[in-house]
Amino acid sequence: MKSKRITGFTALAVVVLLFSSFPALANAPQIANETSVWSVVPPLVAIVMALVLREVYLSLLLAVLSGAWILAVDDHGLFNGLIIGLLRVIDTYTMKALFDKDHLSVIVFSMLIGGMVALLSRNGGMQGVVHYLTRWAKDARSGQWVTWLLGIVIFFDDYANTLLVGNTMRPVTDRLRISRAKLAYLVDATAAPVASVAFISTWIGAELGYIQGGLDKIGELNLSAYQVFIASVPYSFYAWLTIAFMAILIYRQRDFGPMLTSERRARLDGAVNPSETAIQEANSEFDMKAGITPKAYRAILPFLTVVGGVVVGLIATGWDTALWSDSSKSLLVKISEIVGRADSFKALLYGSFAGCCVALMLSIHPRNLTLNESMDALVHGFKTMLPASLILVLAWALASLTEEMHTADFISRALVSLEWSARLLPALAFVMAGLVAFSTGTSWGTMAILYPLLLPAGWEWIGQAGVTPETSLMLFYQLVSAVLAGSVLGDHCSPISDTTIMSSLASSCNHLEHVRTQMPYAMLVGLVSIFVCSIPAAYGVSLWILYPLSLALFWWILGRWGKRAEA
Length: 567
Description:
Helix content is about 75%, strand content about 0%. By secondary structure, it is mostly helical.
């Protein structure tokens, strides 16, 4: 039976790959030079194969191969194109992903965090934190509250949020029989939504840059990018509603869909993860060394060092004396612009390296671990990040490929061609951003493409609608927030998103299990964001009505279809 399933899956993979070669038979145009329907094949291959095979590595590899094959078919023919495409997967797209400085920074940061976590587990620091958090996290409900709160507190960066909260809370949630899928959802859903609307975060620089690019094309709006961003934040419905929806989930202790199945399995059987045994065996070296007394400060100080190091790094790399001396700007504006100019990747490296150094000193100084034992723990932590690093590299290679094939442009132009009312523009932009982010796996890349495209076109569209200047600005602010919120939604649902992958990794959750259980929740919040908030808001309904109405709807849905895991 097993061999038949494998054969069936292999046959399906071959069919998909053959499907991707049809442009050669149909004399399709040069895809590298103009957008084509075939540009959506690679992300579709990645998504479909990941859901069918339930195996990420092969799915991503097949996706990159299908795109490379499509690009090579025009010049090299069907079969030679396959060989050329296979070679380009290694020597072009994988190398391009690895040669990117920011990508390497993420990998090194992840390895340093993984090494630090391994060291803190061996020296008794993590066990001390677990004992400390036990005072508040006494059951599954309070354990989820603590996780949710930590996700909000670490607001300055989604990567740091994901890795710190996931690795810190995993031992606590395991003890309280909270499923790894629920932990991964809490981690993922408090990372990008919080960082995307924070006035001071590593996102703010990218967001302001993208918005400014759109404003430059408009020309007539006498507004700064920061002013536009601040005005648009209240309309970031998906981000705010995601945070509130999680709070309602925790308070009512109800779940539905695949998440309910995972939670019931965890509560009743203690199986917090489908691959629990393998993970426990793989992480056996993370156990505390025998004879050591657990002390929370050995973990708290290194984590505070990471947070402080990232903040100091952001200020140091974005410091501008002239800006700080400008008396016409408020303190909040100065700090936000400094963080916006900062090199967030350098800041992450500084913070994680400093955290590793502090963890090493706290391990050796009280003679809890020898120098050799400490270095062995660090190296073991580095090794545990290899699978995630491989997935990230393949995801980045796919993102590079979709950029070359103009996948986002094709999706954007197809949706922009629809002739809808200007008041439906924010909802349309939200859906468009969600589809692009879902297909490419990157919220930042989606914003980078859609803001310069949609802001000028949207402002012109709004101007032709014959509305008042106040309504025009309101719709424009909603358009700005819709692109941001839709990018986060698509990123949440995409199995090839780097933050989704990192959430699975930090929570030690099966990646496809995380995607499968998170998607219904993300889609529910997304639908409410569109139909209950975005469209009515565009027609002038007050936010003071829309937000309470959305929360009441969540409350009713959970009461109607949600069930308790213990039942």
